[in-house]
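This section describes the prediction task in plain terms. A model, or a person checking by hand, is given the sequence of a single protein chain and must write out its three-dimensional structure as a string of tokens. No templates, partner chains or ligands are provided. The sample shown here is typical of the held-out split.
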Amino acid sequence: MANPDKSPSSEQQVRLMIWTVPRSISTVLAKCLSFVDNSKVFFENYINAYVLDPVRQLEKYRNAELEEAMGAAVKDISDVAGISAGIDASECNYQWVKEQLEKAHVGKKFIFCKDMAYTITDNMEFLPKGYRHLFLIRHPLKVLSSWKRLYQSLTNLSPDKFSLTDFPTILFPKGYGFREMHELFEYVKMEFDQEAIIIDADDLLQDPKGILSALFKLIGLPFEEKILHWEAGNAVTELWTIPRFLLQGNQLGGYYQNALDSTCFLKPGALPDRTSVSPDILPLVDASMPYYEKLYAQHLSA
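The expected answer:
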């Protein structure tokens, strides 16, 4: 396997992009990996660039009641005060993110960025050089049912009042996250001549030691069991390069809070029964399954 494009940093550094879809325990993984010695963490910077896209900001909702409720939620988030951590969203465009990721980061041995695959598929030229690529996947039934519950909590609307496809792509991508993940995976293989790594979220939850030790062997880092347990709380986010508006949103909506309050990986829950979830997500699940299954067929085992 050929190496990815040469990094501007030391050859001793390990650099990893973690691509995922929402509601895939990726924040728990990011918190865990933050405790690798001499690490540098970039958290959802490409999401910021994606949201700032002027064309995407002009897209319309398909549901007036949802638009009104979400507009109120966004205003409430912007009004959250008292958070000094995080970076100003206005500076975090695609070029800026790429430049930050490609900096030397002297003194750091592990640099990683956790982000959503759908934020980069229309802007592949801004992928950073010198990184391995990891894809964190999760069954679409779990992802999409959780994604809808998140938006229910932010809007206070009942599930029958809206569908995920009522959102503009700034909040719900056209390929539901899975098509974009598969597209990025294929691009990385072709353009970087690189064997991307695929981890299933439930595998990670079931056997974190086995999966992470296998991952560390692949990327060239020594694995230490101490990273499997950590202190609860938000303090770790003060060390992350993270857009401030995401921290404001979490303070209001709590969408990262379960992960930040965690102290270890918990065992995975059962796959929801199709009759127990909002019926409108089932076509989205069915459309996403072929992409998920293609990726899962190549997933990392302990």
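For orientation: The radius of gyration is 19 Å.
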